[in-house]
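Lab meeting, item 3. Inverse folding demo.
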């Protein structure tokens, strides 16, 4: 859940590391630190509590020289966020420094063993145990640095992406991973190391994705070394580096004139949805071609059941997919929180299809869930955004959403693309099985082509939504209601509000309101009702009347031209008419904007809300 970055080469490392940390700040931002070996061979570590800017301020008058270094931005797991617990950590003799993303589960046992050998610990972290263990192995087994890292990692239970510096070897940067992501960038006479490619993209497009239990040794200057890049497993099996080309541009990582990444990403959705459908939805030929499905048709057609597993916003996309897959493909669907699924001894059969949904492709619980399903012989299909991430690499097949980097911690454009990909999949299976009529299939395919333009029409109401937001900034609680395809949208709207404005919000199926939440309704309680004109519309209208009868204040998301709800609701936001299964792609947009504007009104840090991280690579 933290971000790590490293550099070895001919340039000054510090500015590259700091820029890299800013790009990785979405992964965690409660403390940050940097370690550098300067020209005199000194190993300097600087750390600060808070965001990367605090570290910069602290290091401003320090010696930041050196062409080799590692840096870290933290999201605390072991030990409270403070300077002592911030990374990098020194070893006992201060010869080594380490940064780590992940969790060492058996750290207590390892620590006790090292304490018995006289090692002392300054921090409460599991990471410090690892650097001590490496130094202990170096000294007691007379191992070189690479061997010491390998031997130490053989004793570790848990997840890690680490980078290690040794001041006795200022020409060497060592890193390793298991469970947490790690990418190496290959430049001219220089190497970069990072949790993802965003800190690397402006220097090179040549990358190597390090695999689980691999140790990479990077040497500089390259010309002086026979094998400047060496990859082995932790058991010392030699590997051949596979260089890939990055599909990421620098402009995708900038705010492009918007005050926040989240707003930029909300406004990008007409284009990102078109990108997700490009080459897949062919409106002229009335056809959807999803290669991940075409190549594995039989697995889907023979599936007795589909299990969808995901976390957070991706789980909400999975719930919407349940409605679509059951309606069009008539295959029973179960939607599981990955964190529950992986631990509850689920019954998984060989003819099950498991669909994992993950923007980052790195969420630890989802990764573990598909590992479990794979071990039982299920077919794994993933819907991911980050190309080459761990989840798609572990899957049998899948579909990338292609929305570009999503940087705002609250997911927006990834969600709509996930829903689009899953709807396309449901339609493909249904058509192949003959469980959807040709007429309905064609109608939905044509309508998919219209969605980007229709989202633009919703976005035109941004100003009006910003006005509504002002009215509700005072609220302590919100309820969001929806039914059918829009019940998960209500939950997603509530999650967006919680995440970035810290207002408590509950998403509920509208009809369930009378079994509990109705007791909460009063003048003080804003109720957002997602009520497009389809499905159980009349029933939702009755629910709105029940709220109004108890003096609740209703914000309704309705279909353009709605005259019924707009008369009873206090505030209405219109979305264009569309097929019922596609309504979530339109109704969620005002909810994203509402959460955004309320958070801005409250002065919250929209892109980096407290306690959250974009990519949760720990359990
Ligand atoms: C975190 C993020 C959420 C995201 C969830 C699942 O909680 O803050 O925005 O929905 O993880 O992440 P994934 O990358 O697997 O979709």
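The presenter then showed the designed sequence:
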């Amino acid at each position: 859940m933290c971000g790590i970055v490293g550099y070895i080469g001919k340039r000054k490392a510090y500015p590259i590391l700091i820029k890299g940390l800013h790009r990785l700040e979405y992964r965690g931002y409660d403390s940050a630190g940097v370690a550098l070996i300067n020209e005199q061979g000194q190993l300097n570590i600087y750390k600060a509590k808070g965001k990367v800017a605090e570290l910069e301020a602290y290091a401003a008058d320090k010696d930041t020289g050196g062409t080799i270094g590692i840096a870290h931005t933290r999201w605390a797991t072991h030990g409270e966020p403070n300077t002592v617990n911030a990374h990098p950590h020194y070893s006992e003799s201060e010869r080594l420094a380490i940064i780590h993303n992940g969790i060492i589960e058996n750290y207590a046992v390892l620590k006790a063993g090292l304490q018995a050998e006289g090692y002392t610990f300054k921090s409460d972290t599991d990471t410090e145990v690892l650097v001590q263990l490496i130094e202990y192995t170096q000294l007691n087994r007379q191992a070189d640095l690479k061997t010491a890292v390998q031997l130490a990692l053989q004793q570790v239970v848990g997840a890690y992406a680490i980078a290690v510096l040794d001041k006795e070897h200022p020409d060497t940067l060592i890193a390793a991973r298991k469970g947490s992501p790690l990418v190496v960038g290959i430049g001219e006479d220089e190497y970069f190391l990072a949790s993802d490619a965003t800190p690397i993209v402006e220097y090179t497009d040549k990358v190597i994705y390090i695999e689980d239990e691999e140790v990479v040794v990077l040497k500089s200057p390259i010309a002086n070394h026979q094998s400047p890049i060496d990859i082995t497993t932790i058991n010392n099996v030699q590997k051949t580096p596979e260089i890939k080309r990055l599909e990421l541009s620098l402009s995708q990582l900038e705010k492009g004139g918007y005050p926040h990444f989240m707003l930029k990403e909300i406004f990008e959705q007409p284009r990102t949805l078109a990108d997700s459908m490009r080459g897949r939805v062919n409106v002229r030929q009335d056809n959807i071609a999803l290669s991940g499905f075409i190549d594995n048709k039989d697995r889907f057609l023979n599936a007795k059941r589909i299990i969808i597993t995901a976390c957070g916003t991706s789980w909400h996309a999975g719930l919407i997919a349940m409605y679509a897959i059951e309606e069009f493909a008539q295959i029973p669907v179960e939607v599981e929180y990955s964190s529950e699924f992986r631990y509850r001894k689920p019954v998984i059969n060989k003819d099950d299809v498991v669909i994992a949904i993950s923007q980052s492709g790195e969420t630890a619980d989802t990764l573990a869930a598909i590992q479990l399903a794979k071990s039982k012989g299920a077919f794994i299909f993933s819907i991911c955004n980050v190309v080459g991430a761990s989840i798609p690499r572990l899957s049998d097949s899948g579909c990338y959403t292609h929305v570009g980097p999503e940087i705002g911690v609250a997911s927006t454009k990834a969600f709509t693309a996930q829903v689009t990909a899953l709807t396309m999949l449901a339609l493909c299976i249904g058509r192949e099985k003959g469980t959807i009529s040709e007429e309905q299939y064609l109608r939905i395919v044509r309508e998919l082509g219209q969605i980007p333009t229709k989202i633009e029409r919703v976005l035109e109401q941004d100003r009006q939504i910003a006005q509504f937001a002002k009215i509700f900034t005072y609220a302590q609680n919100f309820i969001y209601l929806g039914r059918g395809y829009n019940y998960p949208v209500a939950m997603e709207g509530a999650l967006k509000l919680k995440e970035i404005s810290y207002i408590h919000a509950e998403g509920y199926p509208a009809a369930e309101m009378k079994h509990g939440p109705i007791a909460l309704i009063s003048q003080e309680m804003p109720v957002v009702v997602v009520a497009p004109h389809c499905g159980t519309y009349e029933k939702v209208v009755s629910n709105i009347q029940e709220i109004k009868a108890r003096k609740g204040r209703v914000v309704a998301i309705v279909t353009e031209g709605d005259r019924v709800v707009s008369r009873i609701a206090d505030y209405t936001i219109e979305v264009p008419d569309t097929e019922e299964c596609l309504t979530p792609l339109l109704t969620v947009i005002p909810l994203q904007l509402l959460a955004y504007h309320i958070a801005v009104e409250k002065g919250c840090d929209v892109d980096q809300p407290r306690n959250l991280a974009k990519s949760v690579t720990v359990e």
